[in-house]
Amino acid sequence: MSDLTHFNDSGRAHMVDVSGKPDTTREAIAAGTIRVLPATFERIQSGKIAKGDVLSVAQVAGIMAAKKCHDIIPMCHPLLLTKVNIEFTEDATQDENGYCAITVSATVKVSGQTGVEMEALTAASVALLTIYDMCKAIDKGMYFTNVGLLSKEGGKSGDFTNPHIEAMHTGVKA
Fold it and tell me: Which of 3, 23, 133, 159 is catalytic?
């Protein structure tokens, strides 16, 4: 159990004490892709989804999710985030199922005592979920792929780039 920092000596979950750690600059980037039908893709791009501007709403949802991560992930610390940026890469090329791709990239930064990997992952995931929610009336078959942490910088464990996820997101900053 000693490798699992979110468990106390009794094997019960607890929030890790970071009070003795120095503030350092930390950044994490997470990404994921939603696959949509070509007609849905076109309607998103042309602003013809009945619920409104899909990517603008998804962008705000991702930012809000990063800020509220500690409210939904039990062991996350509330953080004073210094940056949350949500970007979209749109690709009309159809996959083997005939679906187009919208990739969400979430970059989160903090100067603090703990990292922002969960905030970045939550931001990317909620942005993807928001796209689904806004388009589900016309495309229930949408699906997610390659959701994961692309990279993180700072903190005790140092920098990390995920070769498995990074390779799946060409054109997305890592």
Answer: 133
Asked if residue 33 belongs to a domain, the reply is yes
Determine contact, residues 64/123, Cβ cutoff 8 Å.
no
- pLDDT confidence band for 20 (50 / 70 / 90): confident
Domain count of the chain?
1
Catalytic annotation on 133?
yes
Q: Which domain holds residue 50?
A: 24-166
Residue 157 within a domain: yes
Q: Which CATH number characterizes residue 53's domain?
A: 3.30.70.640
For residue 41, being part of any structural domain is answered with: yes
Give the CB-side neighbour count of residue 170, counting CA atoms within 13 A.
1
**Are the C-beta atoms of residues 50 and 137 closer than 8 Å to each other?**
yes
Which of 123, 119, 129, 117 has its CA nearest to residue 157?
117
Write the single-letter amino acid at 115. G
**53 near 134, Cβ under 8 Å?**
no
Please report whether residue 6 resides in a domain: no
Q: Evaluate if residue 92 carries a pLDDT over 50.
A: yes
**Do the strands 81-91 and 24-36 form a parallel or antiparallel pair, or are they unpaired?**
unpaired
Percentage of the chain lying above the pLDDT 90 cut: 74
R_g (Cα) of the chain, nearest Å: 18
